[in-house]
């Protein structure tokens, strides 16, 4: 009896480190997944709301939850291209309130704001503030890069285009979106935009 008890105690002592290692690996994996979702959510706040919503709804469908064939890849590639162009173009939109307090949206031009619904634009004395500027191009391309980072954080997208990535590819896919996110976030802070375009929070004015 005593020999059996000793064997049981030795077996338990041998199993405990294995269980601890397994729990540590699961904990690290859970932390990595949690950090990925937090990073993607933070970056998504820098993009037009509608574009991000369309991507989040359609991407799992188009990628078949990451199990892609040629048709899925074509559809997902088209979705990524359209959403990327949307992020770029919507960076050149702005809004203002007309005399009745209604919000009007327009596209920034060299002369001012071209109102999308064809109504009168902002007053002439305010039109100059809506002219297209160099920083608009900067924000447009930064938004495009940020969307690329958000897409790379999406495991369905990664599994669709890189079902069996090499070790080097895994390292790039893991580090590239983080690098893009950090640099873009810093640039957005250093060079803030004053525009309140389509998909962005409205101005109180």
UniProtKB/TrEMBL annotation:
<keyword id="KW-0472">Membrane</keyword>
<feature type="region of interest" description="Disordered">
    <location>
        <begin position="1"/>
        <end position="25"/>
    </location>
</feature>
<dbReference type="GO" id="GO:0010256">
    <property type="term" value="P:endomembrane system organization"/>
</dbReference>
<dbReference type="Pfam" id="PF05078">
    <property type="entry name" value="DUF679"/>
</dbReference>
<protein>
    <submittedName>
        <fullName>Uncharacterized protein</fullName>
    </submittedName>
</protein>
<feature type="transmembrane region" description="Helical">
    <location>
        <begin position="176"/>
        <end position="194"/>
    </location>
</feature>
<keyword id="KW-0812">Transmembrane</keyword>
<dbReference type="InterPro" id="IPR007770">
    <property type="entry name" value="DMP"/>
</dbReference>
<comment type="similarity">
    <text>Belongs to the plant DMP1 protein family.</text>
</comment>
<keyword id="KW-1133">Transmembrane helix</keyword>
<dbReference type="GO" id="GO:0005737">
    <property type="term" value="C:cytoplasm"/>
</dbReference>
<feature type="transmembrane region" description="Helical">
    <location>
        <begin position="141"/>
        <end position="164"/>
    </location>
</feature>
<dbReference type="GO" id="GO:0016020">
    <property type="term" value="C:membrane"/>
</dbReference>
